[in-house]
Amino acid sequence: MSTSQNEAKPNFLDRLSDALRKGRLALLVLLIAGIAAVIGYFVWNELHTRAREKSTLWAEKAQDLHQQWVAEAEGTKKQDLEKELSELTQRILAKYPGQYAAQRAHLLNADLAYRAKDWAKAAASYQALAQRFPRSYLAPLALMYSGSCFEELGEAKKALEAYERVRNRYQASYLTPRALFSIGRVLETDGDFAGAAKSYNQLEDDYPDSNWTKVARNRIIDLKIKGKIAE
User: Mean pLDDT across the stretch 152-160?
Assistant: First the structure.
C-alpha cells in the first residue's frame, strides 16, 4: 500500500506542474493578444484620425469650389469649375465613403443637379445621403429635397415615401411639420382628400404653433367649403 501511494504522489505533482505550465502558456498567449489588440486600436485610431482630417480638407475645398461655381457668370469658367468640383466629390465618395466629407459630397452633387433641373440625378444624390447617413442632421433635409425632385418628375408615390420617412423617423426635426404639410398637399393633388385632411389635422395635433399648421388650417377650411371633406 505504501509503495503504491508513494508512486501516486509524483504523478499528482507532475499533473499539477503540467497544469501550471499550461496556465502560464495560456496567460502568455492572452497577454500577447491583449498587447496586439491595444496596438491595433491605436494604429486604427491614428489612421482614422488622419482620414478624417484629410477628408475634411477635401470637403472644405469642394465647398469653396461650389461657392466659386455659383458666383461664376462666365460660361467656360463655370463649366471648368463644375468639372473640377464633380471630380473632387467623386474622389471623396470613393476614398472616404463613411466620413462626414461624403455627406457634403452627396449634398454638393445634388445641388449641382438640382440647379441644372436634372431632377432624377438630384433625387438620387439626396436619397444616397439619407440612406448612407440616416443619423445625420442633413438626412431629413436631403429627404425633403428628394421629395421635391420626385414631384418635379411627376412621381408622387416616391415623393410621399420621402416625406413619410421624415415624418416617421425625424419627429424632432424642424422639417417634420413641413413634411406633414407636403404629405397633405400631395395627397390632396392626387384626390385623396380624406388622407390630406388627416395629415393636416396631425399638424394641428402635434405642431399647433408651426407656421405650416396655419397653412394647413386654411387648406382644411377650403376642402370643407368645396365639399371635399365633411364638416
Answer: 97
